Amino acid sequence: MKPFLLLATRPEDAAAESEYEAFLRYGGLSERELVWMRLESTPLPPLDLDDWSGIMLGGSPYTSSIPDGHKSDTQLRVEHELSRLLSVLIPADFPFLGACYGVGTLARYLGAKLDDTYAEPISATTIEVTDDGAADPLLAGLPPSFEAFVGHKEAVSKLPDGAVLLARGEACPVQMFRVGANLYGTQFHPELDVPGILERIRIYRDAGYFDPAEQAQVEASVRDVDVTVPQRIVTNFVARYARD
């Protein structure tokens, strides 16, 4: 099988490593089958799409919608490299799955508005599958609604032109969309389970996602939530696009 590629932008080693392990686990992939590139430390090299089954982009502490003058040189480089990559992936309709930061990166490239209107604190939220989502292979076998973990300072205010809405939420109307036949973005984290979100809460306690004084309450609010459905999106993505 040609490997999948996971692009990461988390400077915190523990968060980056657990994200990779989650995509390995829920994708049913070995380390040989999921190549990991950490763009915050290594520039993205030229890619030959024929070498890959698909590309995934994980979450990030980066906020894309802030003015460029407030972004680090590293963030600006990463954004430029991801835009260059999408300029190739979108015309090729190449398999892509962007989670949280990934959905914003895809939407922003397509000209959609990204701002803090529909930001959500770290929490579990109910995701509602649309009719188009129910017919989509990545959501095949999933119930019409399910719980998923979120935590984002920005979100898509309006669906990009030509995109298909696959899932929505009460507090954030664009939770998942598809571009073309094979490029996907999810605002929620399809790779996160309860241990994963608890680790993120500890790592990012001072990153502005919640009041650090309320860490115990935030942990308690997610500890007993049944979040076992969204990970099947990662499983379905790998099953659909794995190729020799």
TrEMBL record:
Cross-referenced InterPro entries, in alphabetical order?
A: ChyE-like, Class_I_gatase-like, GATASE
| Database matches in Gene3D superfamilies | 3.40.50.880
Ranges for domain Glutamine amidotransferase: 55-192
Q: Return the PROSITE patterns for the record.
A: GATASE_TYPE_1
Record SUPFAM superfamilies: Class I glutamine amidotransferase-like
Its keywords, alphabetically, are: Glutamine amidotransferase
Q: Which domain of life is it from?
A: Bacteria
Keyword Transmembrane annotated: no
Quote any Pfam family the record assigns: GATase
The protein here is known as Glutamine amidotransferase
